[in-house]
Amino acid sequence: xxxxxxxxxxxxxxxxxxxxxxxxxxxxxxxxxxxxxxxxxxxxxxxxxxxxxxxxxxxxxxxxxxxxxxxxxxxxxxxxxxxxxxxxxxxxxxxxxxxxxxxxxxxxxxxxxxxxxxxxxxxxxxxxxxxxxxxxxxxxxxxxxxxxxxxxxxxxxxxxxxxxxxxxxxxxxxxxxxxxxxxxxxxxxxxxxxxxxxxxxxxxxxxxxxxxxxxxxxxxxxxxxxxxxxxxxxxxxxxxxxxxxxxxxxxxxxxxxxxxxxxxxxxxxxxxxxxxxxxxxxxxxxxxxxxxxxxxxxxxxxxxxxxxxxxxxxxxxxxxxxxxxxxxxxxxxxxxxxxxxxxxxxx
Amino acid sequence: xxxxxxxxxxxxxxxxxxxxxxxxxxxxxxxxxxxxxxxxxxxxxxxxxxxxxxxxxxxxxxxxxxxxxxxxxxxxxxxxxxxxxxxxxxxxxxxxxxxxxxxxxxxxxxxxxxxxxxxxxxxxxxxxxxxxxxxxxxxxxxxxxxxxxxxxxxxxxxxxxxxxxxxxxxxxxxxxxxxxxxxxxxxxxxxxxxxxxxxxxxxxxxxxxxxxxxxxxxxxxxxxxxxxxxxxxxxxxxxxxxxxxxxxxxxxxxxxxxxxxxxxxxxxxxxxxxxxxxxxxxxxxxxxxxxxxxxxxxxxxxxxxxxxxxxxxxxxxxxxxxxxxxxxxxxxxxxxxxxxxxxxxxx
Lengths: 347, 347
Fold this sequence. Notes:
The structure is a homodimer.
Chain A: H1 2-11, H2 17-29, H3 34-45, H4 50-75, E1 79-80, E2 83-84, H5 86-96, H6 104-133, H7 138-170, H8 179-206, H9 214-240, H10 243-246, H11 252-256, H12 261-269, H13 272-281, H14 289-301, H15 304-322, H16 330-344
Antiparallel strand pairs in A: 1-2
């Protein structure tokens, strides 16, 4: 996979150099490659080969990557995958290499916006390549066009809608946030792309656009619930994970006031005094590590962690249902293992 | 054209409401529609119908629009097309509707990043639709895929590269900027999309992907030089235009230190004293209106305006050469008129 990406980059070097470096930053750091695995293994599950799904598998990874680049600007995160986020890296380079002084932060942000835009286009190009890999002729090209339309016209607006909801909810009093809204946020921000990754891989195995096919929609549901379970676990790890393993700061969700399921559940169970304390800690830039630990304690005591964990397991079960129509064999086992990993992972 | 856009939007309403409003903001304000005209008229010039080119014509306009949304964040512009820029509009709404206080500026910026991203995806979807309009069958779908690949894999990296160069040059001493770099910037930031608009319209008339076709590449060159002439005139208007007509502030290029051809030419001709004065005025946030007028005077006296105007005319002539292979008739006259307008326009 890495080799394929490198060939692709070598074909189209970017100028100026900072743009090239920014575009490659997260890809070089490497990720968990969950979405590409989902695409490849769903393709295998329906009898397809890895070659058929490879460009699409890379497309969903690159698509995910650009959303991270933009998301990190919005969340003002400084680290990702154990290294500086793109906007932070180029703030530093603007200062040290270009002597930009006060302008460096804006420079870093601008480079990150633009690098994300280039990656976005690149993801689309990889889906164009999927047409060539999925065999000769009309069916393959029609399929590629439909996948592009789904990714850009359906997944993207849902994903961005989830992102906007995320921003808006974090500014709204907890009393006015509902569990339904948090699940809507997760559905858009994370699960939509997981579902698409599974569907794309599966349809590439078929070699034609067939959204009504029972196994395609079953694998789509599998991907969807996998995505929800992944995000719930992510929210747990953001609260009680190990910073060194995760490669990003733990507790920053509390500092930023992110509306997550454990927080909302705990808030609903809390008494007046606990609510008051949570209100003082959650969503304040200057919250100390000690206060974050205190909020974590309150959430844990009130059962927020346990509730979120049980919801993640529920979605794991729903995901597993999606595998029922799939023939027994190695690909199905891989997909089952991937689902299990969602709720067991510590990084 | 407006009607087609409205149908398209109605099909996919966006949530939350702020996202929908942000996505439609610039489209509702309306623009000059130069790129769609180019696509439609190049299609007509090769005997095609408006229906064939309409989705692609909208695609290039929507593509242009998302780059404006992101560009305005980067340039920190507060007005566009006579109304607030997206990030400024949603800074205001964040303050007044959501009571965000200090967080409002970051909220406005985040909404603008995300709205640009949705528009980007929408532009790609419109090119998918081009396949359906360009007649049944394999040729049309192949053409649409190739157009998507060109727009996302070739035009986009060039455009963004031009944008990054724009940012970097504005921070570099004028003595270290060359005319070649400024033309490279214009070529990427503006001319690449103009060339694509012309080529896309022309190939849709042919109904198949035919980049080697003599008339296609002639119209591509026409679009390219039209784009350069347009940008040179834009830089002139940014210096000596009428603010009310333009709908955006005049002189802000000087305040922001944009490296434009008139400025560079004047700087090269300037004596020590003039250079010193220009250095004090150009690229300083607190530059006054009076100082901007002074810099404008220096640039004009040293022939910067005249030089830029003659370069724009040169590209106009080169554009007109691209029309030589095109049959006489109404579409050719429209394209000729469009070219003429590039260097005569005052808004």
